[in-house]
Amino acid sequence: MSKVLQVNTIDRLPVPEAGRNEHFDAKVPGLLLRVSAGGKKTWYLWYTIKGERKRRRMALGVYGPAPALTLADAREKARRNLLVAAAGEDPGAPVKAIRNAPTFKKVAEDFLEMHSKAKKRSWQQDNRRIEGVLIPAWGDRKLIAIKRRDVLDLLDGIAARAPIEANRTLALIRKIWNWAASRDLTEVNPCFGVVAPGKENARDRVLTEDEIRQFWAACGGPEVPAYARDMFRLRLLTAQRGGEVAAMAWPHIDLAARTWYIPPEVAKNANGHLVPLSLPAVSILRAIKAAGGKVPALPASRTGRRASADFVFPARSVSGHALRPKLRDIGIENVGFTGHDLRRTAATHLGEMGMSRFIIGRVLNHTDPSVTARYDRHSYLAEKRDALDKWAARLAEILAAGEKQKRQHGLPVRAAD
């Protein structure tokens, strides 16, 4: 039986020893206050959506002073929800959506399996950030309950110690939510309007001629393993990516034809690439082949791949990042550049020698998204060979100039390796 509820009567409602008692409010149809055995008082609303016969129930909140619901607040909230139901919509849908929504952990793990692992060779980076940062922060929370403030708080904590890593984390969060939206798991991306916290500097380092000579000499030092020397020198001669050079395999190399094929599963952009080899590059590879099993095997790579006779460099790592410790070994950090700058340096010299940007792009195996490119299957092998042969000749001039300078100043000259 309904009666008009009042604050003084609500406070004196008896508490049942077991079960619950329900008290309907005569002033707002469908509004009731449930009193549980423990003394807890909770507001509920019974309602019927326009055009339906089925009655539905939704919880409005706990009775009490703010932040709980007072009698006046409960009545106002009930009236608003009744208006929604009268318009033919379900006022309880948002609550049900949150209750049925997947957790962040579930979405992130699905993103890793269905997107990152399927489409990215560098999926381990996503996995590291998801397992090490995002799941510990948000794992059991509902995806749609995570807001922009949560993202900002997380990024602020990371940026305090590693601003660029905060940028990478923000990019990953965006990708996860965009992927979730594409699967109709959310409609709002909490990264909208969030600015990357770290200042990025464009990597445009190009080695000077003196630095090229320093690099080449450091590679030939007696403390440097042969494989490290050859890897880095081939990177400079071929202008290819570090991971691609580290993954060179003899079945893909034709020393007589002076070509090296980078298969799609190795190429960073998944485009197979035929690289013409200059004479100095061929000379390095012939020396490696002649050494045969005398080259010491490297440890197993991070991917778990073991040494194979097919690989030019035993137990090669497919990641260029794995070569970075070798920069310290050969001392080139002293001249302030990283391994990837070798590729940029070669490309810059090709441009200075008059090579077109188009041919330089073919040498570097850059992706061409144009419609014409999809029909143009010409490999441009002759043009690429001309470019890399000229670069090898220019490199020889640079190294020779250094030897000449040493002689002019009466400095000792070390024989070429």
Report on the structure:
The structure is a single chain. Helix 6 (148-159) packs antiparallel against helix 7 (163-182) and helix 9 (226-238) runs parallel beside helix 13. The strands form 2 sheets. A 4-stranded antiparallel sheet has the order 1-2-3-4, with helices on one face. It is 47% helix and 9% strand. With 417 residues, it is α+β, with helices and mostly antiparallel strands.
What does this entry show, briefly?
With 417 residues, the protein is α+β, with helices and mostly antiparallel strands. The chain has helices at 7-11, 71-86, 93-100, 104-119, 123-138, 148-159, 163-182, 209-219, 226-238, 242-246, 279-291, 324-329, 340-352, 357-364, 371-375, 381-408, and strands at 20-24, 31-36, 41-48, 55-62, 253-254, 259-262, 273-276.
DSSP summary: helix tally? 16
Taken together, the total number of domains comes to: 3
Q: From N to C, what is the helix and strand string?
A: HEEEEHHHHHHHHHEEEHHHHHH
Helix content: 40-55%
Q: State the total count of DSSP E strands.
A: 7
Protein topology:
Elements: H1 7-11, E1 20-24, E2 31-36, E3 41-48, E4 55-62, H2 71-86, H3 93-100, H4 104-119, H5 123-138, H6 148-159, H7 163-182, H8 209-219, H9 226-238, H10 242-246, E5 253-254, E6 259-262, E7 273-276, H11 279-291, H12 324-329, H13 340-352, H14 357-364, H15 371-375, H16 381-408
Antiparallel strand pairs: 1-2, 2-3, 3-4, 5-6, 6-7
